[in-house]
């Protein structure tokens, strides 16, 4: 069913509209911590944008909200299929996007190859493993395809996470500090790979980073202050 | 002095750990229950001595009460053995969870200059402290409970001697402490064997690295239990059966793995994917599967035997009530004593059965809950990768049906042979294989487990994905 859906909806272009979003984090302190107040922004199809801010400014939370992984405390988020102009529900939107998590979130039970193939496996793609080998080769990890992910270094795990996000050819790619665990050369190489992939496949890129130089490499960037208000549209 | 201060700080952190409390409560409840039972041994022995001549006479006359008492005694021994094994398994499981959480605490200690040996010593000290306090409290409360029970019984004109022998109480406490030490030993060995780098990197999965030790714990417990109940025949049979059960577990798992190789058949894609998931997680799930399988075996065994013993005892007591007077006038004057004795036995059988059922059920529930929490991270990840809630629900259902089947199939075979052996060796009666009863139990257990975990997984699907991922 997912495979059929994927075939149908492929490359239709999706935009995300966030309106008057407020979000607060529950804490043990007396008052919850306010992260966003009346914050609005939108992501257009094929757009590449970066979210920049210091630690604790809410970059990862904003990414989660934009990707539909988390609901905001208040405000409205809409996912719209550009071709049909119709709103998509969260589940359908998630089938069109990919996420590179800051903490990687790899499955320790699976080896490297199966971790990369997981998004395609869930969609019932019979060539999932072949494609995963191709992507592992692109990120320079073909030689550890059969290794356990727990035996890899943090940098290698991050490259596995990048391969897993790109294998499904998403319409929107959310990348939360995608190269933070890599050395300079590898970081440049991996970011180029992500950037080139997005350009070539008309994929929107939403990048969260503390590195302003990295942010300048995309079309536009949004800066988050301590408590972000309606600043970013 | 500074070392002691450090130890005190670690101790305070440890007291905030939920698993410490669980370990304490489990040991306390097992010791408390066994202590209360052991305290009742003195008046039971007195009652038995007082009425021994009557029982002998009854036996010579072929009175069924003597047989019923013998069966009840054998049953109580068996249930005590089962309780001991199940309690030991619970302690081993909670102890291993405590060891997992302690690994992170020890990592922090190690990177701050505390030696590995001191960490292990601290682990042993905290375990000894938990064990000692739990057992002392259980002993104290059991004596108070016993005194209150006796006072209540006397108030209702049911004469019950509150006299007890310390030796019985001490026996129980020593046995509980030995079982506790045996169950916690693998975790201490785990820390001793663990390389410094593994401890710091936290890359070793506890479930995978210690499942072999579970087998050691179970065998050790069974040996203890055999010693405790003085029935080596049953103990050896249990050990053999556990090994056969593990073999069956291996075979059924391999079969599912072969099926999993045929995944991606479009029509049954989700089913084969779920089988594949089970096979990928089998290393993590094996301890859960073994423990749930054993708990189910003991639960089925105790339910079946309790049922049969009660059927055997009740008509016997009815016989004592109605026909004894006519059949043998010698027993008339002792009728009240015999009835009192019979009801005491019946009460003990019922209390033991209720406790063992409660313990098995709570252990199974805890394990299922723990297992569902283990897959929370994976579920969150799969939802983030675009799996719809409907497909996620199907996947969880298939997965848990497969796990339940792998668990309960060996448990069913094991229960059947165990019940047959127990009936022949302990109760001296022939076991009529009731396949329908066994099948109904297995189907109910499989569906019950699957439905419970599916419900737990369903509730996870309602949470935000970020929460699922971060809670891991």
At a glance:
Helix content of chain A is 33%, strand content 24%. Chain A has 233 residues and is α/β, with parallel strands linked by helices. By secondary structure, chain B is mostly helical.
Could you walk me through the main structural features you see in this protein, from its secondary elements to its overall organization?
The complex is a heterodimer of chains A (233) and B (472). With 233 residues, chain A is an alpha/beta fold. Chain A is 33% helix and 24% strand. Chain A has helices at residues 2-9, 59-66, 90-94, 112-122, 128-138, 154-166, 184-200, 212-215; strands at residues 14-25, 33-43, 48-52, 74-81, 87-88, 97-100, 172-176, 204-209, 220-223. In chain A, the strands form two sheets. In chain A, strands 6-7-8-3-9 form a five-stranded parallel sheet, with helices on both faces. A four-stranded antiparallel sheet of chain A has the order 2-1-4-5. Mean pLDDT of chain A is 84; it is low at 1-9 and 229-233. In chain B, 41% of the residues are buried. The longest helix of chain B has 48 residues, at 64-111. Chain B is globular and about 75 Å long. The two termini of chain B are 38 Å apart. Chain B has helices at residues 2-15, 18-39, 41-50, 52-60, 64-111, 116-155, 166-193, 196-201, 206-229, 232-261, 269-280, 282-322, 324-327, 335-374, 376-384, 389-427, 435-462, 465-471. Chain B is mostly helical. In chain B, helix 2 (18-39) packs antiparallel against helix 7, helix 6 runs antiparallel to helix 7 and helix 12 packs across helix 16 (389-427). At the A-B interface, helix 3, strand 6 and helix 4 of A face helix 11, helix 15 and helix 18 of B.
What keywords describe this structure?
heterodimer; A: 233 residues; alpha/beta; 8 helices; 9 strands; 24% strand; globular; B: 472 residues; mainly alpha; 0% strand
């Amino acid at each position: 069913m997912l495979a059929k859906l994927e075939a149908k909806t492929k490359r239709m272009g999706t935009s995300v509209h966030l309106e008057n979003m407020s979000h607060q984090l529950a804490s043990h302190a007396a008052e919850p911590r306010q992260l966003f107040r009346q914050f609005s922004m939108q992501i257009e199809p094929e757009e590449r944008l970066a979210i920049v801010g210091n630690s604790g400014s809410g970059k990862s939370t904003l990414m989660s909200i934009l990707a539909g992984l988390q609901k905001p405390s208040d405000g409205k988020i809409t996912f719209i299929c550009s071709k049909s102009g119709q709103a998509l529900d969260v589940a359908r939107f998630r089938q069109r996007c990919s996420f590179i998590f800051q903490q990687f979130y790899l499955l320790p039970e699976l080896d490297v190859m199966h971790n990369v193939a997981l998004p395609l496996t869930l969609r019932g793609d019979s060539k999932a493993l072949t494609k995963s080998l191709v992507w592992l080769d692109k990120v320079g990890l073909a030689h550890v395809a059969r290794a356990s992910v727990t035996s890899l270094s943090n940098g290698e795990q991050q490259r596995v996470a990048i391969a897993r996000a790109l294998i499904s050819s998403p319409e929107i790619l959310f990348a939360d500090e995608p190269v933070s665990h890599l050395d300079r050369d590898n970081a440049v190489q991996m970011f180029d790979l992500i950037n080139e992939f997005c350009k070539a496949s008309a994929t929107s890129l939403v990048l969260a980073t503390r590195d302003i130089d990295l942010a300048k490499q995309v079309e536009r960037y949004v800066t988050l202050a301590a408590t972000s208000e309606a600043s970013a549209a | 002095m500074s070392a002691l201060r450090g130890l005190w700080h670690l101790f305070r952190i440890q007291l905030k750990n939920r698993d410490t409390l669980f370990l304490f409560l489990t040991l306390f409840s097992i010791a408390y229950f066994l202590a209360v039972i052991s305290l009742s041994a003195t008046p039971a022995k007195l009652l038995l001595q007082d009425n021994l001549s009557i029982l002998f006479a009854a036996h010579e006359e072929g009175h069924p009460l003597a047989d019923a008492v013998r069966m009840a005694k054998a049953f109580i021994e068996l249930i005590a053995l089962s309780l001991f094994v199940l309690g030991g398994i619970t302690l081993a499981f909670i102890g291993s969870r405590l060891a997992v959480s302690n690994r992170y605490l020890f990592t922090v200690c190690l990177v701050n200059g505390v030696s590995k040996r001191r960490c292990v010593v601290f682990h042993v000290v905290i375990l000894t402290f938990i064990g000692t306090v739990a057992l002392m409290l259980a002993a104290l409360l059991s004596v108070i409970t016993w005194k209150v029970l006796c006072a209540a019984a006397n108030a209702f004109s049911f004469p019950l001697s509150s006299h007890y022998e310390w030796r019985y109480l001490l026996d129980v406490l020593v046995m509980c402490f030995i079982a506790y030490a045996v169950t916690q030993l693998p975790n201490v060995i785990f820390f001793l064997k663990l390389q410094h780098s593994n401890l710091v990197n936290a890359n070793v999965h506890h479930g995978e690295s210690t499942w072999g030790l579970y087998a050691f714990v179970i065998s050790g417990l069974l040996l203890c239990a055999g010693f405790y109940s003085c029935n080596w025949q049953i103990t050896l049979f249990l050990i053999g059966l556990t090994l056969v059960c593990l073999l069956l577990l291996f075979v059924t798992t391999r079969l599912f793995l072969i099926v999993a190789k045929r995944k991606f058949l479009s029509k049954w894609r989700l089913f084969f994917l779920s089988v594949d998931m089970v096979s990928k997680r089998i290393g993590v799930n094996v301890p859960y599967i073994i423990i749930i399988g054993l708990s189910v075996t003991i639960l089925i065994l105790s339910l079946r035997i309790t049922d049969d013993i009660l059927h055997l005892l009740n008509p016997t007591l009815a016989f004592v009530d109605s026909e004894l007077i006519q059949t043998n006038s010698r027993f008339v004057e002792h009728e009240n004593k015999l009835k009192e004795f019979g009801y005491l036995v019946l009460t003990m059988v019922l209390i033991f059965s209720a406790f063992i059922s409660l313990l098995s059920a709570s252990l199974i529930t805890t394990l299922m809950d723990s297992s569902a929490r283990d897959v929370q991270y994976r579920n969150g990840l799969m939802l983030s990768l675009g799996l719809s809630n409907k497909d996620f629900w199907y996947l969880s259902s298939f997965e848990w049906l497969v796990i339940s089947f792998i668990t309960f199939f060996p448990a069913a075979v094991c229960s059947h042979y165990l019940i047959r052996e127990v009936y022949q060796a302990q109760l001296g009666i022939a076991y009529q294989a009731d396949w329908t009863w066994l099948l109904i139990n297995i189907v109910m257990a499989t569906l019950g487990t699957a439905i419970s975990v599916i419900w737990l997984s369903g509730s996870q699907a309602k949470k935000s994905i970020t929460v699922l991922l971060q809670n891991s």
